[in-house]
Design goal:
Elements (H helix, E strand, L loop, with lengths): L1 H33 L6 H24 L12 H25 L9 H34 L4 E6 L3 H12 L5 E7 L9 E2 L2 E5 L4 H7 L4 E4 L6 H13 L4 E3 L17 E2 L2 H5 L8 H8 L3 E5 L4 H11 L5 E6 L2 H11 L8 E5 L5 H11 L3 E4 L6 H5 L2 H21 L4 E5 L10 H19 L4 E6 L2 E3 L5 H10 L4 E3 L5 E2 L1 E3 H14 L5 E4 L5 E2 H11 L10 E3 L20 E2 L5 E3 L7 H17 L2 H11 L15 H8 L4
Parallel strand pairs: 1-2, 1-5, 2-4, 5-6, 8-9, 8-11, 9-10, 11-12, 12-13, 13-18, 14-17, 15-20
Antiparallel strand pairs: 3-4, 6-7, 16-19, 18-22, 21-22
Helix pairs in contact: 1-2, 1-4, 2-3, 3-4, 9-17, 10-17, 12-14, 14-15, 15-20, 16-18, 19-20
Length: 637
């Protein structure tokens, strides 16, 4: 081990000596260039008289600027700047010393010598590094050329340029970029890092038929879902595997790297645009604050934890009644660069004493209430639990937030709360009314609800279920050919929830822009194609019928809410429809009694009264519904 270290040190010293020799040689070379390599005798004497001084000055500045510590493998523009600064400092010191000491006895060094010496110093030192880096790459190419992966990049912008730089810096990646393709015809024929923009993406199959291509990388983070879908189709037609760079909104640090490439998935096909957040508002809301996130181990809750950490809160309380999701959250975040502590809190939101103790001990400023039962068919079979958790759990947490002086309370709602036909949707609409009522009870706390549709990749959502069915060889089960749903990504939903929290004055129901609804059967077919298979040929699609409580399409706003856009283009606010406090209190009291009696029929009747737009059916009997069992086993929508 010591012997290897000694050899390494000797190598570093040898390289440093070589650089100093070149640095010093620039002084003599400058004289040669100035006089066409035949200097007059008096200037030759002057060169000999000043060379030792130049060597001493250049060695000193070389060490002072620590040029020997620059690693050739990663030398770049910044290192060239340091070389220039070193050469400039050496020239300035030489000018002063030669003026003061006058070693030429009245014969001055021509001014052009100093300029030439400066330029040659930069050229020789910078060139040495460039030669070392290029030759290292060339040698690696010679020895590993047969096993290299031949890559084509779709996109000829900043992202592609960063990927090309990374490949160039890391020959061990063993990648060779054969060509770039871009649909901007102004770029055709241009070169980036020496790689030619060969044509548009539609021309790629012709290129692939005559050139070796192992993989295509889509490096267009701003591309729409339709663009990604078209590019993937082109690659599939050529039978070439494809990976994609995540959207800019998903690259939280803004950096593009090879390690961030991943397989194309349905998120890319949907093509949600990156969210632009009001940093000043969010910083004012969250910085140095204690933030409580209920349902903190769930899909939305855990993403809220990650998003909130970016804004520098004092601490985050992640509350969940299930310990395993909290454990998984802490494990996933332990390597994060953020120093904001995540405090796991195992508690049930319906436990009033426990919740009150948490608020008393920690005094959270901001409460993000994501805890809820969300599965429509399951809640059809568990009516009392849906109401107990979604309505009275929300009441417990919001009441504690008001009594203990939290500044903001935000409830995560759902599009299923609009004209609800399910127990889950109805319970969430009633929870919205409870949150609105808290505005009158606790005017110092801003109580708002944020309503949106399905999120991709959340627990129990359609995408992971479809993927599992495809992996098993099918069939993929869809409830109805005309089933439509709104979708957005988990990070997008979480970011917009924070934006709504920051702009809410109290009492509002915010509605997020979900874009255009997506046919579930179309999503199923696209996922089958992304798996390299053919819908209805390799994988069958089976329609199982709608499940209890389901609608063919969801709505985002109630009739008469007249949602208007806020200052954020993706956040809308419905016109406030205040609940009658006395009627709501009386109804909630009756609902409490019905729950105590475990009277499901009475619970549904009271829900229908309290939520006037609800369209609920009678209570199903647990375990007796074969339709329910089939829905849980596979029917999805």
């Amino acid at each position: 081990m010591k012997r290897g270290h000694t050899i390494n040190q000797l190598g570093i010293i040898g390289v440093a000596v070589l650089q100093i020799l070149l640095f010093t040689a620039a002084w003599g070379l400058a004289f040669g260039v100035r006089f066409d390599f035949t200097p007059p005798e008096q200037y030759l004497v002057l060169l000999y008289a000043t060379w030792a001084m130049a060597a001493a000055v250049k060695t000193s500045t070389f060490i002072a600027f620590q040029l020997h510590r620059i690693w050739w493998r990663y030398a770049g523009i910044k290192d060239l700047e340091i070389i220039g600064q070193t050469a400039l400092a050496a020239s300035a010191i030489l000018v002063i010393l030669l003026f003061l000491l006058d070693p030429g006895g009245g014969l001055r060094v021509p001014r052009g010598i100093f300029v030439l010496d400066l330029l040659l110093s930069v050229f020789l030192l910078g060139g040495l590094r460039l030669v070392g880096r290029v030759s290292r790459g060339r040698l690696h190419n010679v020895f590993s050329g047969r096993n290299r992966s031949h890559i084509v990049i779709f996109g000829a912008g900043d992202a592609a340029e960063q990927l090309l730089r990374e490949i160039d810096r890391n020959p061990a990646m063993n990648q060779r970029v054969e060509a770039l393709f871009d649909d901007d015809e102004r770029k055709l024929g241009q070169r980036i890092q020496g790689v030619r923009v060969y044509g548009t993406t539609e021309e790629f199959p012709d290129f692939a038929s005559i050139r070796r291509v192992n993989e295509v990388v889509i490096a267009t983070p701003q591309a729409t879902g339709a663009d990604i879908q078209r590019m993937v189709a082109v690659c599939q037609a050529a039978n070439i595997p494809v990976r994609v760079l995540p959207a800019i909104g998903d690259l939280l640090d803004g950096r593009v790297s090879w390690s961030k490439l991943r397989e194309v998935d349905i998120h890319d096909i949907l093509g949600r645009k990156p969210v632009q957040l009001d940093g000043e508002l969010l910083s004012e809301l969250l910085k140095d604050r204690t933030v409580l996130i209920t349902g903190g181990g769930g899909s939305i809750g855990s993403e809220l934890v990650r998003q909130v950490r970016r804004w520098g809160p004092r601490r985050i309380l992640a509350l969940d009644q299930a310990e395993n999701p909290l454990f998984d959250l802490l494990k996933s975040e332990q390597h994060s660069d953020s120093k904001v502590p995540i405090i796991p809190v195992v508690a049930n939101v319906c436990d009033a004493d426990r919740i009150d103790g948490i608020f008393r001990d920690w005094k959270p400023h901001v409460v993000l209430h994501a805890a809820a039962h969300k599965h429509v068919p399951l809640m059809e079979q568990n009516v009392q639990e849906a109401v107990h958790n979604n309505v009275f759990g929300t009441g417990t947490v919001s009441d504690a937030a008001g009594r203990h002086g939290a500044s903001h309370f935000v409830m995560i709602s759902t599009d299923k709360a609009v004209n609800p036909t399910s127990i889950m949707g109805c319970s969430k609409r009633l929870a919205e009314l409870v949150v609105q009522q808290r505005t009158h009870q606790y005017p110092k706390t801003r109580f708002v609800s944020v309503r949106f549709g399905n999120v991709l990749g959340s627990t129990g959502s359609v995408v992971p279920i479809f993927k599992e069915q495809i992996a098993r060889g099918g069939p993929v089960t869809v409830t109805h050919p005309d089933m439509l749903r709104y979708f957005m990504t988990i990070p997008e939903a979480s970011q917009l929830v924070l934006e709504a929290a920051a702009i809410g004055a109290g009492g509002e129901v915010f509605i997020l822009d979900m874009g255009e609804p997506v046919r579930i059967v179309d999503m199923a077919r696209e996922l089958i194609r992304l798996s390299g298979l053919k819908p209805d040929i390799d994988i069958q699609i089976v329609f199982t019928g709608t499940r209890p409580g389901e609608k063919l399409f969801e709505e985002l706003a109630l009739e008469g809410e007249n949602a208007t856009q806020t200052h954020h283009p993706k956040v809308f606010v419905g016109s406030v429809r205040r609940p009658d406090p006395k009627l709501l209190d009386a109804g909630l009291s009756s609902l409490t009694d019905a729950l105590r009696r475990q009277d499901g029929a009475a619970v549904i009747a009271l829900l229908s009264e309290l939520v006037q737009e609800a369209q609920l059916s009678a209570v199903p009997q647990v375990g007796s519904s074969s339709r329910y069992v089939e829905a849980v086993r596979g029917g999805r929508g």
